[in-house]
Amino acid sequence: MWWYYFKCSKITIAKLRLAVARIVEYGFWASLNVLFCLAYFKYMQKITPFLWFNNNGEEAIEYYTSIFKNSRIGNISRYGEKGPLPKGTMMSANFQLDGQEFMALNGGPHFQFSPAISFFVNCQSQEEVDELWEQLSAGGEKSRCGWLKDKYGISWQVIPKDLGVLLGDKDPIKSKRVMEAMLKMDKIDIALLKNAYHQE
Question: What's the whole-number mean pLDDT along residues 80-89?
């Protein structure tokens, strides 16, 4: 996409001329994307997950930001008259989930999400595990060992911090019992993990 050219290198007179040309070609509102990118990419984090949706990206980011605390939607740019999707449809957006920056694109049905890439959620309590497990899996698919796929096809791992602590114990027998218990679970249950750990 033409705005990608702007994010990857420094601003020049040639780029500003290209921006004017694209305003003429795509329409004013879609071309505000240039201004958003020039401001946003200057301050963005070093590595940012970039999610490609078909045409429901705006619905997805509204859903995600309603689930996680400390979340918000930033700038949204929209397609104009000559875009591949209807005028007014979200083209790209930046948003935060619990302070983590993300970007989203409505790019059409060319690519699908895969469990080969997932988002690992480090939970502080069983209550947080329970809440996120149900919210993220609603309309999607629950799987084994804390993995799930949400209704948009994105995979998540909802994992309590206790699991890493117990698996990393210096006693290999205790660690093995925790692993065996975890492999039998869908949603991770901290109490059952600790029972396996303390079993004699």
Answer: 90
DSSP per residue, 154-193: -EEEEEEHHHHHHHT-S-HHHHHHHHHHHTT-SS--HHHH
Q: How close are the terminal C-alpha atoms of the chain, in Å? A: 60
Tokens of 15: 């780029």
Left (φ > 0), alpha (ψ -120 to 50) or beta: where does 77 sit? beta
State the Cα–Cα distance between residues 104 and 52, nearest whole angstrom: 6
Q: What are phi and psi of 119, to 5 degrees?
A: -105, 125
Nearest CA to 150 out of 99, 192, 97 is that of 97
Q: Is 78 helix (H, G, I), strand (E, B) or coil?
A: strand
* Burial letters 132-151, b for 16+ CB under 10 A, else e: bbeebbeebeebeebbbbbe
The token pair at 78 is: 């929209």
pLDDT digits 0-9 by tens, 97-122: 999 999 999 999 999 999 999 999 99
Query: Does the reported pTM lie above 0.70?
Result: yes
